[in-house]
């Protein structure tokens, strides 16, 4: 099995661009998806990869995506649920960052996500710019049962707004909605903050899989319809459709 790229290698390869065309990707993507299926459990537990490649044409995107948030908010669980269809009640804290990849196919494009799951501990904060630099999208996660994690999420949003890609697609994600009885942060509060800061907002549960696939599907659609990056010359468009009862889209 190939070793995931180091953060430094990833940054050197990407430099200033958040997207890149994949001219040979269409012919190999189906094979990649099939080769991963055995690792993801029963079909009912696997992410829905829409098999629409025959209609896709040449719209292929490789996008760097970073997850940020306080420790214990479920960032790794969200990624594992999306990539492998798995969930573990006990999940060790990420050290530094972990790398994953996954493919989503839409009518208008195939998106290959290069996902960096960052550690939430404060001692790793100084490493974060290595992972969000050059990212096309960011998921900022908080735990609905922790007001402290919501406050920390706001700080991540502010940092991204100051230092990140000006065209960065950002999602504010309220995770652990399965802990409704312990909720400390209301959905309206998260939604309002997202609206005020140009993010889209979604409530999820990695444990039950609620809105996990929808989260990444929404990001993929926004990447496909985004303004082309200057370095890639990409020209794609799509119509966005809300999915999931806890999805609130707050920015175009």
From TrEMBL:
GO terms for biological process: protein transport. It is found in: Endomembrane system. SMART domains: ARF (SM00177), RAB (SM00175), RAN (SM00176), RAS (SM00173), RHO (SM00174). Signal peptide: none annotated. CDD domains: Rab5_related (cd01860). It is a lipid-anchor. The keyword Transport applies. Keywords: GTP-binding, Lipoprotein, Membrane, Nucleotide-binding, Prenylation, Protein transport, Transport. The keyword Transport applies. It comes from the Eukaryota. GO terms for cellular component: cytoplasm; endomembrane system. PANTHER family: PTHR47978. This is Ras-related protein RHN1. It comes from Ensete ventricosum. The lineage of its organism: Eukaryota, Viridiplantae, Streptophyta, Embryophyta, Tracheophyta.
């Amino acid at each position: 099995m190939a070793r995931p790229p180091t953060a430094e290698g990833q940054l050197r390869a990407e430099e200033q661009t958040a997207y890149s065309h994949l001219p040979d990707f269409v012919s190999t993507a189906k094979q990649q998806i099939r080769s991963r299926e055995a690792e993801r459990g029963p079909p009912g537990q696997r992410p829905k990869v829409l098999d629409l490649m025959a209609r896709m044409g040449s719209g292929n995107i490789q996008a760097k995506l970073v997850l940020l948030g306080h420790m214990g908010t479920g960032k790794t669980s969200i990624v594992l649920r999306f990539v492998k269809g798995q969930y573990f009640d006990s999940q060790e804290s990420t050290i530094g960052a972990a790398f994953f990849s996954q493919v989503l196919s839409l009518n208008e494009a195939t998106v290959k996500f290069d996902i960096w799951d960052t550690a939430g501990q404060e001692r790793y904060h100084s490493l974060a710019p290595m992972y969000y630099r050059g990212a096309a999208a960011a998921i900022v996660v908080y735990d609905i049962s922790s007001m402290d994690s919501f406050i920390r999420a706001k700080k991540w949003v502010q940092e991204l707004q100051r230092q990140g890609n000006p065209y960065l697609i950002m999602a504010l994600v309220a995770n652990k909605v399965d802990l409704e009885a312990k909720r400390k942060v209301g959905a309206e509060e998260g939604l309002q903050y997202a609206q005020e800061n140009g993010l889209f907002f979604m409530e999820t549960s990695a444990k039950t899989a609620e809105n996990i696939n929808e989260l990444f599907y929404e990001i993929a659609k926004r990447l496909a319809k985004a303004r082309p990056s200057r370095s890639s010359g990409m020209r794609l468009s799509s119509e966005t459709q809300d999915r999931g009862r806890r999805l609130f889209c707050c920015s175009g």
